[in-house]
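Budget justification, computational time. The allocation requested in the original proposal was used primarily to generate structure tokens for proteins on the priority list. As evidence of use, we reproduce two of the resulting records. The first is shown immediately below.
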Amino acid sequence: MPPGFSIGPLDDLAAVLALNAANATETSLLDEGALRALIDQAFLAAAVTGPEGLAAFLIALDQDAAYASPNFRWFQARYPRFVYVDRIVTAAGQRGRGLARALYEALFAKAEAAGHDRIACEVNIVPPNPGSDAFHAALGFREVGTAEIHGGAKTVRYLLREATR
């Protein structure tokens, strides 16, 4: 991670909502209540901050979360134990600096310490998100399914990374 950046709690909700909104095509919009609900039950909710403030964030839930997302529910129906990355977002001007990788490394370490051996997420196929596809492939994720969601407005690729221990 570049000098001057650090990982900490996700506590600047206004900044998180703004960064999420700027990337809503890849994730989905959140209001403050929905964001608080995610953070309250998160396995990990972490932010990377730097000299200009919030640069990236990650929110992940484990299999026991009460979350109505069709993507989360897809994994919940198929795997008894996992950590699901609901969203990872890096500010456009901060991409390519290793911030998302640092957040994932923190997640992998916490998941391993808690005995989890599966990290799950999804990446849009429609609309396409080739940067995220390449990023997740480089981290060892593989496709385990696809689905159309939101009445066909989005098609997603379900990805899983299993521990190699």
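The second record produced under the same allocation is shown here.
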Amino acid sequence: MDGDLNQALDAVGPRLRALRHKRATTLTDLSAQTGISVSTLSRLESGTRRPTLELLLPLARAHGVTLDELVGAPPTGDPRIHLRPVIRHDMTVLPLTRGAGGIQAFKLIIPTSKREPDPQTHDGYEWLYVLSGRLRLILGEHDLVLTPGEAAEFDTRVPHWFGVAEDQPVEILSLFGQQGERAHLRARPKARPPSD
């Protein structure tokens, strides 16, 4: 067991370096995002510093990956099927639903990036809810910034693009209906008739 643990911990440094290079992020930028000193980050990547949970948690968040992915944890033998995140256009997309039709739910983690807005269109209807960070949403001629707790809904045939509004990652929930299905929201319960 100790050999497996040492092997997993030894693999963290190269994995951290590869994630940082994939995101084209410098040690200085990563230090600003995580609050971890540049020297500590450098020693983690080179393997001269042992990773701890206190260091791995902010790094996993900054890179938009789970702790399991960061340390290369083996499957636990859990019989349930776990939906795995995928990286798409630098975003980590975690499916929350399985069905092929109807409304699909996703959690998206958008890292800080220098992506230029490139509005696209496609069939469907989308609802976005910001969990953390500030989301920039370009929708037609509108250029909006959504903050935690704010939501937007739109027909995806309208040119749209979303990404980070500032130099911090953004986490959002997305409900998407490929056939144009809309989420039915109930703002408040129906009023009760007055009692006698």
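A brief technical remark on that second record: The chain has a mean pLDDT of 82.
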